[in-house]
């Protein structure tokens, strides 16, 4: 490990300047690999064991390991590599005072940079330390295929810190998500003889309203104590060929948030049941595609080492008592919902209010504070794990 401490502000700026827009959303993007190349060189130079794990053609996860010293604890720092699309003006990187602007600044390269800085701090400090794994995932901004791959390959850990903008306040719960398409098949006709056709758009509208009146109403009226309502929304629609043709096809995309105490398979079957009932009653020909993503939510136990350590470290960083709460957005932590040996907490610099906006920014002082918080968090996990081991023996 190099003795010289990283210039964290410059590191973050360098990472943001690397275009890593998700290529599934931005066809002109080089994808995550240029960022992976830079991280590979940096982390290898810091003495970490770095591997690239293929997930999609030309798109890898990157995993770097700092071995522990006299500790049975393991901490995973996870952050995603990709960003949402943005035009050239939004991608321009600039500083204004202590704010750094640019796509990916808070979502979530600030967390990634702070994690790297924390690992350097941990490695350069004498004494016991946990094994620390940095897991950088591709594709979070689309359907989390990188996170799903990590869920298959990561070893058990005492804590997975998912780096997302939470203003340095830990979240131990959030909703999962299901995204799926419904295709309604009608019959084309000239609009002057509309009675000869079957209007797929009109029938799709009936399905949308029926789902909103059943599943949607139930979800609006049901609230999880930490994450609120897990809503169902129609989000995209495609149909028709011309203004004077009765449409013979209409595709509607839906986004169903999944509460932490729900099974996404059960939630999807509930939707299918309503669609079948409406289709049968109104003679609608409909095809429900398999979801492109169906993941459960996050809810890590309040008394777990993961949450207790995160609350303690955040309290010290912020100078006030912090209790882990819930957030409404989803993260790669969804991918770990069937891995109880990977208890996750979402924690990072920046505000979700700035993420995905045309003026995305992060406070550089908060990024520096995140580095210190992450390093403290790893030490705290080691201490709590050691205490539990001592009590058990």
CATH superfamily of the largest domain: Zn peptidases
Can you identify the CATH class of the largest domain? Alpha Beta
Q: Write down the CATH topology of the largest domain.
A: Aminopeptidase
Order of helices and strands: HHEEEHEEHEHEEEEHEEEHEEEHEEEH
Strand arrangement within the widest β-sheet reads: 1-2-6-3-7-18
| Overall average residue pLDDT | 97
Structural class: alpha+beta
**What is the gyration radius calculated from CA atoms?**
23 Å
N-to-C span: 35 Å
Any guess at the CATH architecture of the largest domain?
Answer: 3-Layer(aba) Sandwich
Strand composition percent: 15-25%
The structural domain count equals 2
Q: Give me the count of strands.
A: 19
Helix run count: 9
Summarize the amount of helix as a percent range.
25-40%
Poorly predicted runs are none
Shape: globular
Largest beta-sheet details: 6 strands, mixed
Please name the defining characteristics of this protein.
393 residues, Alpha-Beta Plaits, alpha+beta, 19 strands, six-stranded mixed β-sheet, 9 helices, five-stranded antiparallel β-sheet, Aminopeptidase, single chain, 24% strand
Describe the structure.
The chain has 9 helices and 19 strands. It is α+β, with helices and mostly antiparallel strands. It has 2 domains: 8-174 and 298-392, Zn peptidases (Aminopeptidase, 3-Layer(aba) Sandwich), CATH 3.40.630.10; 176-295, Alpha-Beta Plaits (2-Layer Sandwich), CATH 3.30.70.360. The strands form 5 sheets. It has a 6-stranded mixed sheet with strand order 1-2-6-3-7-18, sandwiched between helices. Strands 9, 11, 13, 14 and 15 form a 5-stranded antiparallel sheet that branches. A 3-stranded antiparallel sheet has the order 4-5-19. Helix 1 (8-17) crosses helix 4 (105-124) and helix 4 packs across helix 9 (364-392). It is globular, with a radius of gyration of 23 Å.
């Amino acid at each position: 490990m190099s003795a010289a401490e990283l210039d964290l502000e410059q590191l973050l700026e360098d990472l943001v300047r690397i275009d890593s827009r998700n290529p599934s959303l931005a066809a002109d993007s080089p994808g995550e690999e240029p960022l992976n190349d830079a991280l590979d060189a940096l982390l290898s130079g810091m003495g970490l064991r770095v591997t690239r794990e293929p997930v999609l053609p030309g798109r890898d996860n990157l995993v770097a390991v700092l071995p522990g010293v006299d500790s049975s604890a393991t901490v995973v720092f996870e952050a995603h590599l990709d960003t949402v699309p943005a035009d050239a003006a939004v991608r321009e990187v600039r500083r204004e005072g202590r704010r750094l602007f640019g796509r990916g600044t808070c979502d979530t390269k600030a967390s990634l940079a702070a994690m790297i800085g924390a690992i350097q701090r941990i490695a350069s400090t004498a004494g016991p330390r946990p094994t620390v794994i940095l897991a950088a995932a591709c594709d979070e901004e689309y359907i989390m295929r990188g996170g799903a791959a990590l869920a298959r390959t990561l070893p058990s850990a005492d804590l997975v810190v998912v780096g997302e903008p939470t203003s340095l306040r830990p979240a131990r719960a959030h909703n999962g998500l299901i995204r799926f398409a419904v295709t309604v098949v009608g019959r084309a006709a000239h609009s002057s003889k509309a009675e000869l056709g079957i209007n797929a758009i009109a029938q799709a509208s009936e399905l949308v309203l029926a789902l909103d009146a059943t599943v949607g109403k139930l979800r609006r009226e049901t609230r999880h104590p930490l994450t609120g309502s897990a809503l169902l929304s129609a989000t995209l629609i495609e149909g028709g060929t011309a203004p004077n043709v009765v449409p013979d096809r209409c595709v509607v995309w839906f986004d169903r948030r999944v509460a932490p105490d729900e099974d996404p398979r059960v939630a999807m079957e509930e939707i299918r049941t309503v669609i079948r009932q409406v289709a049968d009653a109104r003679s609608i020909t409909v095809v429900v595609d398999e979801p492109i993503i169906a993941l459960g939510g996050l809810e890590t136990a309040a008394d777990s080492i993961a949450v207790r350590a995160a609350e303690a470290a955040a309290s010290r960083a912020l100078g006030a008592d912090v209790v882990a709460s819930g957030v409404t957005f989803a993260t790669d932590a969804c991918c770990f919902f069937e891995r109880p040996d990977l208890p996750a907490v979402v924690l990072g610099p920046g505000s979700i209010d700035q993420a995905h906006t045309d003026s995305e920014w992060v406070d550089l002082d908060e990024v520096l504070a995140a580095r210190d918080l992450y390093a403290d968090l790893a030490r705290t996990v080691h201490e709590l794990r050691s205490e539990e081991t001592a009590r058990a023996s």
